[in-house]
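Weekly puzzle thread! Below is a chain. First person to post its structure in token form gets bragging rights.
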Amino acid sequence: MKVALFVPCYIDQFYPQVGIATLQLLEKLGVQAHFPAQQTCCGQPLANSGCERDALPIYKHFVETFSDYDYVVAPSGSCVYHVRKHFDKLDQTADVQHVRGAAYDLIDFISTVLNVTEIPGAFPHKVGLHLSCHGQRGLHQANESEMTPVRDGQLRRLMASLDGIELTQLNRNDECCGFGGTFCVSEAGISARMGQDRVADHVLNGTQVLTGSDMSCLMHLEGIVRRAKLPIKVMHAAEILNGVVNG
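Winning reply:
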């Protein structure tokens, strides 16, 4: 199995520890992932801003970079969703179709490709899960409250397998954080208020550590936590899982 690690722009620039944790976690799970040095962006910021035609060269470069790999794994559901759904704007060559199908969010890859259902290790904290819109509704990694009241999903199952962990029962389980990529710039007030509402639910229900599999959402929520000086630590799921698994 030939696996490539794709590190999104905001992780590369602001949260490099998440990229490192992802690589180390994959290694601990028996996957020797490669990091193609020529990789750049997936093109999502341009597309979100209405400039998708300008993003096409970025899409093409992405395909050229990762076409030789069986899987492309990223700690970001939003970037993976963009590759899978928006690369339909390219001519659907064999390489393009292959890369679209090969792109996996880290948690999805662990759960469905590696078939890992339990993670050995302990994390004795009260942990609140944030389910990103792209991961939950786009990649179908968790149940949607619009469809069923059952709270289930890939991230929840992996986290629940850790010894000593307590998962926060939120009042509104799968609300959007309000980040929305460039939405947080064009509609800053609405974006901030949505994030504040999301964080307030975690505070109300006693979350000590807030986690998820999409660092863009967590970045937005962490900014709100820091500004309000709240007693919540924000961590990507890769950081938690990598920290508890022995190498």
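Puzzle host: Confirmed. Bonus trivia for everyone else. The chain has a mean pLDDT of 91.
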